[in-house]
Amino acid sequence: MVTGKEARAKRQSSKKNNQDCKIWVPPFSIQALQKHTCVIPPPKCNVYKEIPANNTRFRDNYNRGMLPVGIDPRASKVSWKADITKLDYHYYLPMFFEGLIETEHPYTFFAQQGIHDLLTHGGPKIFPCIPQLVIPVKDALRTKNKYVMIATLQVLQHLVKSGDMIGEALVPYYRQILPSLNLFKEKNVNCGDEIDYSQMRGDNLADVINETLEVLERYGGEDAFINIKYLIPTYESCMMN
C-alpha cells in the first residue's frame, strides 16, 4: 500500500524529471537512452472528434456558377433555373450528395434542399444513380459532425422512400454506410429530470439514427434486418416486435 508521503514524493520526482527534460525525443529510439531527454507520449484518442471535410466538387461548381440553382427570397427555398425533371441525374444527384459534407452557408442550404427537391421529382431516374450515392453518404457520416450526420440520415430516409426497390438496392451497401452509426446510436443526452428539447426539434442524433434504421428495415425487404443486426448488434427490429 502506498502512503500519502510516498505518493507526494513520487509526484515531486516525476515533476523534477520533466523539468530536467531539455529535449523531447520519439519513443523506441536510441535518443530515448540519452540523459535529460523525455519520450514523447502517445497521442490521445478522441473517438468523437470531428473529421474536417475536404473541398468538394459541389462547392467548386457552386462558386463557378455552374449549378442551376438560386434562392427564392420570398419563400427561403431553392429556385431552379432549369426544369428539374429534365436534369441529368447521373451528373447532378451525386454532385449534390457530395455537398452533404459541407458545414458552411450557403453550401449546406443548397446541397440539402437541392437533394430533397431532386428526390421528390426524380422518379425512375433515382434508382440507376444509387451506386454513385454510397460514397458521398459514407463520407458525410464519417465526419462525426452532428448536424452533417442528421442531415445525411434525413436524406437517406427520403432516398429510401423516393422509389420502388431503392430500399432493397441499398442493402448490399450497408457495410459501407452503417458502421459509422454504431458510435452514436446510444449516445443520448443525460439531462436527468430536465427536458431534452433536442428531441422536440428533431435534432437528437441517437433518435434520428434509430428512425433511419427502422426506415431501412421497413423498405429494405426480408434481408434488411439481418444485415442491420450484423453491423449494429444493439438494434432491435421494429417489424418483429
Structure, explained:
- This protein is mainly α.
- The protein has helices spanning 4-20, 57-63, 89-98, 107-122, 130-142, 146-161, 166-170, 174-177, 197-201, 205-219, 224-231; strands at 23-25, 37-39, 69-72, 77-80.
- The protein has a two-stranded parallel sheet with strand order 1-2. A two-stranded antiparallel sheet has the order 3-4.
- This is Parkin coregulated gene protein homolog.
- One of its GO terms (molecular function) is Hsp70 protein binding.
- It holds the Pfam family ParcG.
- InterPro entries: ARM-type_fold (IPR016024), Parkin_co-regulated_protein (IPR019399).
What radius of gyration results from the CA coordinates?
25 Å
Instruction: Give me the count of strands.
Output: 4
If you average the pLDDT, what whole number results? 84
Oligomer: single chain
Low-confidence segments: 191-195
Percentage of residues assigned to helices: 40-55%
Main beta sheet: 2 strands, parallel
How would you spell out the order of helices and strands?
HEEHEEHHHHHHHHH
Q: How are the secondary structure elements laid out?
A:
Layout: H1 4-20, E1 23-25, E2 37-39, H2 57-63, E3 69-72, E4 77-80, H3 89-98, H4 107-122, H5 130-142, H6 146-161, H7 166-170, H8 174-177, H9 197-201, H10 205-219, H11 224-231
Parallel strand pairs: 1-2
Antiparallel strand pairs: 3-4
Helix pairs in contact: 3-4, 3-5, 4-6, 5-6, 6-10
